[in-house]
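Q: what does this look like with flavin-adenine dinucleotide bound?
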Amino acid sequence: MASPSKLRIAIVGAGIVGVSTAFFLARAGVGVRLLEAHAPAAAATGAADGAVSVASKRPGAMMNAALAGIALYRELAAQGVLDGGFVSRSTFLVAVGAAEAAVLDGHAEALASAGVEVVRHPTSALARLAPALSPEAEGAIEVRGEGHAIGYDVVRRLIRAAELTVERGVTVRNLVQSSDGGLVGLDTDRGRIEADAVVIAAGGGSAELLGLDGVLRPRRGQLLVTERAPALNAALPGAIMSARYLLSKASAKGAPVSPRGYGLVIDPLRTGQFLVGGTRENDATRPIADVEAIGHVLADAVAMVPGLAKLRLLRAFAGLRTAVVDGLPLIGRAPGGDGVFVATGFEGDGICLGPVMGRTIADALLGRPATLDLSPFDPGRFLAGRVAA
Ligand SMILES: Cc1cc2nc3c(=O)[nH]c(=O)nc-3n(C[C@H](O)[C@H](O)[C@H](O)COP(=O)(O)OP(=O)(O)OC[C@H]3O[C@@H](n4cnc5c(N)ncnc54)[C@H](O)[C@@H]3O)c2cc1C
């Protein structure tokens, strides 16, 4: 491959992953072509909650990646790149009922064993700690050192900080390879783009480009946003996550999961509003919200924080997470050559992981030593034989 400054790199997708990759390459002085079928953050990145969090994770590769992701958000915030776009806060996992309390106990131990700072708050402490919480709450664990960032806002700030140009309305059709299997570039609906390396960060659109039918699946999430309520907002010390959310993520093995994957996260935003979610629906292919799901989420939210009943609902919306059948994203070089990089399948973690994965891919393209082990996410586990470049 050419020296980094001479590399012609094309990135497919201007979601948080593609934009982060472009940001770190641009900071290293490498020009990129950032190709986007619609507009920056048009897909999952623009329809997400923004938990930058390990609270719902089990120890393992995803937790390690998320811890690195949180650390990078702090770095970018300290450098002024995110300029107030990253809010530091704790996540409170709250149990209602004995079954949830038991799930929470086990989960707290798992988090602590991985070195995450966890504080247990007994039922008796909750009225003082979080006066807006329902008296039904039976204890909580506080996961410290977490944060929140709105995906489309991060994308906007990274584009501005690195003065990136997003080529909007360019749909990539396929990879182009020479007869000996070397990478030539990409065919788009606006013509061919030659490249020494390409990064496929196209979310759900990656399936068609890489021949990953049956490997990537949409998993819909529905969210709602309330009006501003500063006093109520101040009465919550951080994000509230129902212990049931762990069940909806199937983190607690053997626990029953509702078909809609209802979980509950109530995020007090710095605007004074609340962002509340949501669902985790398998195989819903359209990003649309429906009354049944939003009604259910609202009822759960009011049961957890009764004061929410007095607020007006401003907006309900839905997005499609791109999930991989084995639960781990696909990140790294496509097998068979070093010209094609893949970064997709982040499901419900791409806001947290986008910047750190963008940096890791940029480092790989620049020939720098890896700061994060990508082997658990090796796309070769599904791509072997599908991409020859
Ligand atoms: C309801 C909901 C809640 C979420 N909450 C959180 C959360 O709290 N914390 C968290 O970390 N994550 C969360 N996520 C997940 C997160 O939003 C995603 O993992 C992340 O945005 C994925 O980013 P991406 O860049 O990989 O993909 P996307 O944002 O999907 O971007 C892919 C881009 O590629 C473009 N594209 C596709 N095909 C082509 C093509 N052929 N040619 C050109 N362009 C193409 C698309 O238009 C799109 O803009 C949530 C997601 C949803 C839906």
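The domain at 88-146+217-324 is CATH 3.30.9.10 (D-Amino Acid Oxidase; Chain A, domain 2). The first strand starts at residue 9 and ends at 12.
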